[in-house]
Amino acid sequence: MNWNQIEGNWKEFKGKAQSQWGKLTDDELDRVEGRQTELAGLLQQKYGKTEEEARKEIDTWMSNI
Q: Distance between CA atoms of 5 and 27, rounded to whole angstroms?
């Protein structure tokens, strides 16, 4: 799966993202609107991750959905 598919179907994947990262609220995930950079920024903010850690975590999540 590639990120364009996730972005295009964000409403479907939003719940999966919230299951993976429980600290993220519905409102925050709505604002992300499937943008990978925005999601990485939220992970950095909410979980104290570096940009590289957040991107790796997103890549791992993406390969498992």
A: 21
